[in-house]
Structures are given as structure tokens and as C-alpha cells.
Design a protein that fits this description.
homodimer, alpha+beta, OB fold (Dihydrolipoamide Acetyltransferase, E2P), BirA Bifunctional Protein, domain 2, Gyrase A, domain 2, 5-stranded mixed β-barrel, Asp-tRNA-ligase_1 (chains A, B)
């Protein structure tokens, strides 16, 4: 082989030994008639010294520029006193070259490999150079190591890795599908999967008992926020297990990965919180527990107040009035910040952001500073102070609207203030959120929607669910980490009569159900086992583990916000002949 | 948990113990007032006995029909003397039920799970039932185990599992792409990858050193033979390794999988054979070495014969005359079979199939029976007998045409006769075929084509390749198993000047090259390491390992020959609204 060691693995254990190294010239310095090259490979850097005594190697070294590909052989020796580099594993040694061969040249790259300030456009266009940067190497290595751990864990637990189709049928609900015209069936289209949901349920009906797959999924959404048209899911399904079994297995897997890859011990077991509690305390079904602030319930108190803004919200159906106390907020938050927060909660539909500065609790009403104080009764003010346990210097924000608006607005404000005031405590806060409602009421469409998906099993019997859908609880569970949902799933419906009832409640009639899910309904009739599973969003999980800011930073070849690949220039125009074969034509020439 | 053991794992080690089992009622028999149920899960069958004494269990058991889903708890006891079933791991025991719960009912399935004669259409339509059959369970388990072994091997060797995009750019050469219209870039299309070839080379340029991925690939081909529109590839690329390093690593991986999964020891190392030798001896670049017949070269002998059919073939450029001796063929092959073989070789372009029956070698010309004997000189007949080492009773077939036709026809005939006459010796014959030509002459287009792909490195320097492309040897290697190519790859070109020269020889001009491979040519300029790799066809390999007849039998949800899914009814028509969003319309309504 051309190489005896990776550059980054050469250390004092190899002192005196000969090594063969291959890599890239990260930096070259000429100093005192000697050439120094930092040679880089995926494991790190090593300093190579080329002395004029080794004439051929020296002549070659003189031609070396940044990013030339080199092969070096030489002897490992200690660095001279005082020149150690404690940041490198190889920092105590250097390699005195006996030979140096230029395997390939390089033009001057558009950026240096240790540059931190490169525009994302340049990074994506020259992705093969961007990925040479040590930070990107480490991220993709962390990804590979984590996925490898998942696979080994699941293999050991008897899960079978089974592949499901990519060319499949359009998803009946959910986001927009990517479509693939069929050449052999003119006028018809495959869809790329948004998830293998139905296939994994079919695999349970086929008796495979424990399935997993690390699988690409696709959504043709508008790429707001940090989304990608194709993303990777760890998809899991099991038979004959209940929620406790499944969540136990899964947190064992995540705990193991954190231990093995990051050296971090996560709690055992993960805390569990009901959806209703999460919404009440944090205004979110994926609360970040690292932020020591909670919402305070005031709906009951405000029902009888004269202040219309609060009373109307408290008295409307599905209305809520709640407070968010910011400890020390009177001093820590400027007037400008508070104004900005008013704009911020507006994005979530809140029509304003009332607040009270708590100057001196001993003075009662007089110690509170806010235009709304005069509108509130003594009882209300007392309740606010008592329930929030506010002390002098605190600031209390209020939300009063439909519960959804209050939760979204104060839930987001809680996160924002937590970050702005640097309140985050601890590194990792995993959590299971459970006991989700089966259905959400859709005001616009005036009907029930499935909160998870229409195959989720309710906890109760068919009749109970039909009689009171609003209070039906789903056997669903989400894994939340630091305020991000990293996985979610449920026990599925395994009896045809329950599936039919849920479709009915969702307003999916028999003909629609047959058309969209006919094969699933058929399959339920032939001996479907009780089953359930979940799926993890791998990109987002790895992003959190790697401390990256975007999922693009943990994917080798991501796309831009307009779903394009700057490296290969995809998508691109195609030949008319190809369109003809697929029985399609363009509507307008671009 | 609902279960203490899998059904198929209950054996005499558990005698006297209580077990909890879940599974499907494979068969129910009532005998002597007692009910017997063979309970089935993915690990096998166990016999459950339900006695009328356990009244509730018995009442439930009376309602059980085929494929009902059951939960049973009971005690393991020996079967009565003389009722052992040596075919089952659980064949010496039975479970006396204390409780039996019906978890789900089943309608009468369209076929029994032990039926072997089900039409493929029914199997694919009810795939979730077909997959319950033990033979299908075993195949998919074998697939999962093999893939798991590959991953563990590659992880241990420092390979990084890195994902490449599915929504990518159209492939410049090769088969037809599946296209995906872009909504955000109207009039433009992504293509689904035929392989991640360029991405894996870019990952080497990015310094990842060792990459692998088990990845879905797509080809919109007409599905002759045993092809699928989507198939799975084990894709591998390495830097700083040569052919010997790579093939050594890879055969280690395959040997390990055969050992671990099948308990089979493959030879170490695998034999290696040059392309030229494989074509000469077997008429194939993927010879099945288990068949003890070889082609005999006669081109030189026939050049001076008067017999036009042979002489013309022998004297034309790239012509060949060769023989295939069938030991004992005079008796073993009927006149009808020989006629059928004439038709068979016709499919490969052969215009006829001359043959000689060797009745008595001691009689010279008189001992040979064939219409062509009178056309051949004594010298030619002697050469045929001597070179084929024919003995009495043998039959010798002849091919005379362009070498390609002779090789295709006699190569295929060799396989067919080998199977027809049951000549296959041994179970497993792996082989590396190496030293492929760089280029094949395309008579139709009057130009050179790349035999592998245009990124394959030649063995020689640029000038040598340019001067004599016909004799340029590629640094390519194919892994062949039992006459099937299961993997192939090459050392790639890593210098821009060589890549440009090869493009020129292939008639790809600078503008085309820039358009199609611009990003690769750019990347080559910035310090590309020497690299190479290969890809394995996972479906085909697993098919061979499982002893299945079709790759459809080792895929969970395959498509039909017309690229349709009978289970989900994909592809299907889509809404006009969706087409409008994608800026396409149909040419004609189907």
C-alpha cells in the first residue's frame, strides 16, 4: 500500500520509525533553508521537514503549492524544543522526509482550507474543496459513526434492514410529492416517498416483526427555514410491542450513540411529559427544557376581569391567557428589545405583547409598572404575582388570544429570550412527549385533522373515539432534544373497523379510502399484528450532535433554498426527445 | 413485553418453562378432542396444544382460522413419543396453552402460506402475504444479514458511509434516466442517479479517503431479462490504493459474508484472469468456471482452408473460428437438441451451428460424422481433434464469424449445455476478470466507446494511449461469481490531461465535456488524489447467495416487467393541478 499511517495518527508512539504518508499540502513554509509542509489527510495534520540534503525530495518540495497531493516517506523524530503544537495529536513530532513525490498538482484554490469565512454559495459550488475543511470532515465522520452505531444497535436487537421502493405511489396527504413520469405507462406518474409509512406497516403484516431502514425521503416544499428537498430518516417499525417497549428501545439507541460518539451520558430513562402539560407549561409540544422559564396559566383568573383584551380571550372557546416571567427582565431587557419582541410574537399571530415590570412587590399595585395595571383588579394582580412568584426586577409578559396563538407566541418568545439572555442550562435535554390528542380541529375546513397521521391508534375503543373525538388520546410519542423534535411515531391501528372509523372522523369516505389506501385496508383484513414504530430525522439529529447551525452542514451535497445543486447545476433542461418518450411537454419555455 | 420467545426458537432447552408467544395460526387441527395450532412467526413454527380443560383458551382456539394473529402463554413439554418433527427446531416439544388470546382475525387468504405454486401476479398483488412464506422470510433475512456484514467489514476498514443525492443531474451516457420535474425551476428536471459515480469521485477529491454507500440506483430500461427499474448497489471508492489493494479488500469482504452467512469458504485469493484469456477460453468476460468445457482456438488453422464459411471468418479483421467440445455429446445430445441449439446461437447472431460427431478417432476422417467434414483438409481435422483432445463419443460444435458473434454464441452455448447436461461442478466459483481493453470499436458509429466508463484509468501514459487506443489496457476489474458479474470497478483517471485525452478519443469535444462533466474537470485541477473503487450489484449477489431464480425474490416490493407495482397500483394518474405546478402537461391522454 502507498501509506503506512494516516497523517493525523502519527504521534510520539512512532518516534524513530519510518512512515509512508499521503495527503494534501495544507501549508508550506521555507525557513532557514529548510522546507516545512503541513501534510493533511482526513485524520489530521503532520509536519514534514524537507532538508536540502535529500536533494530529490527537496527539489520536489520546492515545487509544492497549496493542495498539491503528495506522498512522503520519512522518519518520525521529536520536534525541536519549544516548537511543540499542543493542538495536534502529531504536535510533538515531525517527519523528516527521505522522499517526497508529487502525486498531483493543484491550481490555486478559491479559498484556503483553514478559512472560516467563506460564503455559502462558494462553499456549495466548490463542495469538494469545502468538504476538505477539517470541520466538515469531522461532521461527516460523526454522521457515519452515529449511523453505524444505530445499525449495530438495531441489528443486535433483532431488527431487519429491509429496503422499500423509491418509485412509488403518490402520498394521499401531507406535503407535495416529487413526481416521476412513467415511460411504460404513459400519462401516469410515480411519486418519490415522503416516508415509507405504508410499506413499513405492510412489512409488519408480512411478519418481519422488527424492521428498520435508513432511507431517503422527499418533500417538494417551499424551502423556508432549514429544509431540504431530500432528507434522511431512520425508519423503524415493530410488532407486538407497546409504547413503553418501543420508547425504551429507542432511547437506549440514542443514549448509546451519545455515549459512543460524543462521550455524553443522557438520563435514563428520558423524562416523559404529556402533550397537555407541555403546552400548558411551555407553549410547545417540543419544549426546550434547558431554559428555566415556564408559562403561567391565568385563563381562569381573567374570565371575570373587566379588561376586555384578557377577558375576551379567556372566555372564548379554546382561548387562553398566560404569562411568561423573565427573571431580572426589568433590567436585562431594554425598551428596544421589548419592542422587538412585540414584533417577534406578531409573526405567530399575537396582536400585541402586554407586560408588567415588577419594581417593588411590597408596594402592591404601586410597585408595578405597566399601562395595563390600571385595567386589572387587585385580585388579578395578586394572582399574577403569586402564580409567577415574581420578585423585584422581574418582568412579566402576557399572551391573550386563542390558545394556539398564545402558545405559539409565548412558546417562541420563551426560546428567544432564553437565547438572548444566555439562560440555557446544561447541554442536552432529551424528553418524550406523549398523550397527544388524536385530532386537531381545523377552523378553516371546519373538520378534524389527524394530529399525527390517520394510521395512529387511539388509546380508547372505537365507540369512545367516535363519541368524543376532541378528547381522544393517540398512542403517539415524540422524542424531543433541546427543543427540536428529532423523532416521532405511534402505535398503529391494526383492526379494520378502527381504521374505518378514524377515516370517517377525518371525513375520508369509503371510495376515497379505497382509492388511496385500498391495499392497506385489504392488508388489515388478513391478520395484521398489533404494531407501531417511529422515525428519526437523521439530518437534524446529527446537526444537533455536531453543533452545526444548518442541516446543510451535515450533508455531503445539499441543495440551496431554491432546491438547486450549485455543484452539478441540477436541475437542468433535458432533450425534447426525452420528454416525448415520457409523454409530457413543457407548458411554457423557461 | 407481550412475548418471551420467538416461536421458532422454542426447543427442548425450555422444557418445563412458561413461554409467551405471538404469531400467526399457520395450521389448526382438531384431534381427539384437543386443538393443535402450529403457531408461526419469522423464526419458525411451534406446536401449541389447547386442551378443553383450559376452557377460555379452548373457546378462543375454536374460533381460530388460518392466519389469525394469536398470543399464547403456556408451558413447554415434550411431544408424545413418536410424534417428533425432525424438520423443526421446535420438533421435539410442544406448548400446552394456559391462555390463548385472539389479537386479530383474518379473512381466508388467497393462498396458503405453505403453497409453493402461486402465480407471480398474485404474489406481487398480495405481497404482504407472499412475504409471510418462510422461504421469503429467509431470503430477506439473508439479505439483511449479508448487508450488515458488509457494513461491519467496511466500517472496520475505515470506510465512511456517506450519502449522495437522489435528485441529481442527468447521466451523460448510459441507460435512460428517470426524470423528476422541478417545480422551483420551471422547465428543468432532476434525474435519479444511475450510480453515484461522479459523487464518489468528488468525495475522494474532498479527502474522505474511503467511502461506501448502499444506495438505490435507477435505470429506465426496457425490462428484458431480470432487471428492475430501481436496484441496490454497494458503492465503494478509495484513495491511494491500487488494483491489488482494492481487489484484496473486496474479496476479503465477500469471503467474510459467505463464511458468516452461508458457512461457505471461498478460495483465498480469488483466481484472476485477463479479459483476453476469458474471451479466448470461455467466449465471455464473466465465465462460469464451474462448467468443465472450454472453447478451442481454430482461427489460425482455418485461414488457409478452402471451406469458405470458416476461411472467410478466420481471415476477416476481428474474425474468429473456434470449437466447443461436448464430452460424450454424441450420445447425450439428441438431433432435436442440436437443432434447438442452432436456433439458440442464432439469437446471438450466429448464422449456423456446424458440428462434428466423433465416432472413432482411430479411423481418422472416416470416424467423423458431419456434413462439413468433406470440406475440411486432413490438417484441419487433425488440428481439431488434437486441440480439442476429442475422444470417441464427443461432439464438437463450431463457431465462425466476427469474434464477437463467435464468443457470444459459443459462450452462451457452453452455459446452456453445461446446464442441460448437468455438468456444473462445485457450488461457488468466484473470479476476478482484469486487464480489460480501454476501448471497444463501435462498428455502427465508427468510433471508440469506453468499455467501462470514460473515467477509467488506462495502464499506460497519455501518449501511448493516444497512439494505440485499440491495445490500451484499462485498470479495471470485475468480480464474477458463477458466471454472473456481481461487481466491477477501476482505478480512475486523476490527472486532467489524461481525462481530456480520453474524452478526445471518445469523440467528446471540449464543449460537450464542459457541459456534461464540467464540475468533474474543475475538481481534477485542485489536487485530485489517485483513486479507484467499484460497485456491487446487491440484488444479484443476494439472489445467488439465496439460490433464488429472480432478483424479484430478494426484494421486498419489486416491480413487474412493465415497471409497475401491483400492490400499490403505482404508477398512477395525478391531478391536473400537480402537473400545472410542475409546468408540464401530458402529450396525449392515456
Amino acid at each position: 500500500m502507498m501509506r503506512s499511517h494516516y497523517c493525523g495518527q502519527v504521534d510520539e508512539a512512532l518516534l524513530g520509525q519510518e512512515v509512508q504518508l499521503c495527503g494534501w499540502a495544507h501549508r508550506r513554509r521555507d525557513h532557514g533553508g529548510v522546507i516545512f509542509i503541513d501534510l493533511r489527510d482526513r485524520e489530521g495534520l503532520v509536519q514534514v521537514v524537507i532538508d536540502p540534503d535529500t536533494a530529490e525530495a527537496f527539489a520536489n518540495a520546492e515545487r509544492v503549492r497549496s493542495e498539491f497531493v503528495l506522498r512522503v516517506h520519512g522518519r518520525v523524530r521529536p520536534r525541536p524544543d519549544g516548537t511543540d503544537n499542543p493542538n495536534l495529536r502529531s504536535g510533538k513530532i515531525e517527519v523528516l522526509a527521505k522522499g517526497l513525490e508529487i502525486l498531483n498538482r493543484a491550481e490555486t484554490p478559491p479559498f484556503q482550507m483553514d478559512d472560516e469565512e467563506i460564503s455559502e454559495e462558494v462553499r456549495l459550488r466548490y463542495r469538494y474543496l469545502d468538504l476538505r475543511r477539517p470541520v466538515m470532515q469531522e461532521r461527516l465522520k460523526l454522521r457515519a459513526r452515529t449511523i453505524s452505531h444505530f445499525r449495530r444497535y438495531l441489528d443486535a436487537q433483532g431488527f431487519l434492514d429491509i429496503e422499500t421502493p423509491m418509485l412509488t405511489k403518490a402520498t394521499p396527504e401531507g406535503a407535495r410529492d416529487y413526481l416521476v413520469p412513467s415511460r411504460t405507462h404513459p400519462g401516469e406518474f410515480f411519486a418519490l416517498p415522503q416516508s415509507p409509512q405504508l410499506f413499513k406497516q405492510l412489512l409488519m403484516m408480512a411478519g418481519f416483526d422488527r424492521y428498520y431502514q435508513i432511507v431517503r425521503c422527499f418533500r417538494d416544499e417551499d424551502l423556508r427555514a432549514d429544509r431540504q428537498p431530500e432528507f434522511t430518516q431512520l425508519d423503524i417499525e415493530t410488532s407486538f410491542l407497546d409504547e413503553a417497549d418501543i420508547t425504551g428501545l429507542m432511547e437506549g439507541m440514542i443514549r448509546g450513540a451519545f455515549r459512543e460518539v460524543l462521550g455524553v451520558e443522557l438520563p435514563e430513562p428520558f423524562p416523559r411529559m404529556a402533550f397537555a402539560e407541555a403546552m400548558s407549561r411551555f407553549g410547545s409540544d417540543k419544549p426546550d427544557l434547558r431554559i428555566p422559564m415556564e408559562l403561567t396559566e391565568l385563563t381562569d383568573v381573567m374570565k371575570t376581569e373587566e379588561f376586555k383584551v384578557f377577558a375576551a380571550a379567556a372566555n372564548q372557546p379554546r382561548g387562553r391567557v398566560a404569562a411568561l416571567k423573565v427573571p431580572g427582565g426589568s433590567e436585562k431587557l431594554s425598551r428596544k428589545q421589548i419592542d422587538d419582541y412585540t414584533g417577534f410574537v406578531g409573526r405567530y399571530g399575537a396582536k400585541g405583547l402586554a407586560y408588567i415590570k415588577v419594581n417593588d412587590v411590597s408596594k402592591g399595585r404601586e410597585g408595578l409598572q405597566s399601562p395595563i395595571v390600571k385595567n386589572l383588579s387587585d385580585a388579578a394582580l395578586e394572582a399574577i404575582l403569586a402564580r409567577t412568584a415574581a420578585v423585584n426586577g422581574d418582568l412579566v409578559f402576557f399572551g391573550a388570544d386563542k390558545a394556539k396563538v398564545v402558545n405559539d407566541a409565548l412558546g417562541a418568545l420563551r426560546l428567544k429570550i432564553g437565547q438572548d439572555l444566555d439562560m440555557i442550562e446544561g447541554d442536552w435535554a432529551p424528553l418524550w412527549v406523549v398523550d397527544f390528542p388524536m385530532f386537531e380541529w381545523d377552523d378553516g375546513e371546519n373538520r378534524w385533522n389527524a394530529m399525527h397521521h390517520p394510521f395512529t391508534s387511539p388509546r380508547d375503543a372505537v365507540e369512545t373515539v367516535k363519541a368524543d373525538p376532541e378528547n381522544a388520546i393517540a398512542r403517539a410519542y415524540d422524542m424531543v432534544l433541546n427543543g427540536t423534535e428529532i423523532g416521532g411515531g405511534s402505535i398503529r391501528i391494526h383492526r379494520p373497523e378502527m381504521q374505518t372509523a378514524v377515516f370517517e372522523l377525518l371525513g375520508i369516505d369509503e371510495a376515497q379510502a379505497k382509492l388511496k389506501f385500498g391495499f392497506l385496508l385489504d392488508a388489515l383484513k388478513f391478520g395484521c399484528p398489533p404494531h407501531g414504530g417511529l422515525a428519526f430525522g437523521i439530518d437534524r439529529l446529527i446537526m444537533l450532535m455536531a453543533g452545526a447551525k444548518s442541516i446543510r452542514d451535515v450533508m455531503a451535497f445539499p441543495k440551496t433554498q431554491t432546491a438547486a445543486c450549485l455543484l452539478t447545476d441540477a436541475p437542468a433542461a433535458v432533450d425534447e426527445r426525452q420528454l416525448r418518450e415520457l409523454n409530457i411537454r413543457l407548458r411554457r419555455t423557461p
